[in-house]
Automatic annotation (TrEMBL):
<dbReference type="InterPro" id="IPR002347">
    <property type="entry name" value="SDR_fam"/>
</dbReference>
<dbReference type="InterPro" id="IPR036291">
    <property type="entry name" value="NAD(P)-bd_dom_sf"/>
</dbReference>
<dbReference type="GO" id="GO:0005737">
    <property type="term" value="C:cytoplasm"/>
</dbReference>
<comment type="similarity">
    <text>Belongs to the short-chain dehydrogenases/reductases (SDR) family.</text>
</comment>
<dbReference type="GO" id="GO:0016491">
    <property type="term" value="F:oxidoreductase activity"/>
</dbReference>
<protein>
    <recommendedName>
        <fullName>NAD(P)-binding protein</fullName>
    </recommendedName>
</protein>
<dbReference type="InterPro" id="IPR051468">
    <property type="entry name" value="Fungal_SecMetab_SDRs"/>
</dbReference>
<dbReference type="Pfam" id="PF00106">
    <property type="entry name" value="adh_short"/>
</dbReference>
Length: 187
């Protein structure tokens, strides 16, 4: 059975590795979103997996997850590519503006920006894609998070990435709460 996957932040690192892994199953259709759709890493994958004459298995769609207008444009493009909906929405794009900054030295404006990125911007990102997610019979939303966002493990990570850990913890709560509203499993 084929599955449709959308992966944000897929031009490098973990996102690119996820796309590459998903494409190993030839029944998967993958939509790789990125701010850099011309990235050589993705172009190479397109050439490798999209066989002329067959339906494409990998599509690259430009998406800056912080731009609500661009999220809507990307959702419109994806709707044409996958009229049956998105089975798995994988939120991989992320930021960590102050990874090694001491608590007393934090730039609070950057802290606020990071918190906004993992909360308000996630809502703005998901809203236009929600009809496509709800259209699927699978309906899974997955955002990559971090052990440092765990309240249980917070004491072990007491001296690293304060804004990142707080923002990721807020993302976890947001996804759990929103998942209940729309009856979408999130993890």
């Amino acid at each position: 059975m084929s599955s449709t996957w959308l992966v944000t932040g897929s031009n490098r690192g973990i996102g690119l590795a996820i796309v590459d892994l998903l494409l190993k199953d030839t029944s998967n259709l993958v939509i790789a979103t990125t701010r850099k759709p011309y990235a050589e890493s993705l172009r190479e994958l397109v050439e490798l997996v999209n066989i002329p004459g067959d339906a494409p298995r990998l599509h690259i769609v430009r998406l800056d997850v912080q731009d609500a207008g661009e999220a809507q444009r990307a959702a419109d493009i994806v709707a044409e590519l996958v009229p049956g909906g998105i089975d798995y929405f994988v939120g991989n794009a992320g930021v960590n503006y102050q990874p090694q900054t001491a608590f007393d030295d934090l730039d609070l404006d950057l802290f606020l920006e990071e918190l906004k990125y993992y909360t308000v911007d996630v809502i703005r990102l998901l809203k236009p894609f929600l009809p496509l997610i709800l259209k699927s019979s699978t309906k899974k939303v997955v955002f990559l998070t971090s052990m440092c966002s765990s309240l249980e493990l917070a004491k072990k990570f007491h001296d690293i990435s304060y804004p990142y850990c707080v923002a990721k913890a807020a993302l976890n709560m947001l996804l759990v709460k929103w998942g209940f509203v729309f009856n979408i499993p999130t993890f």
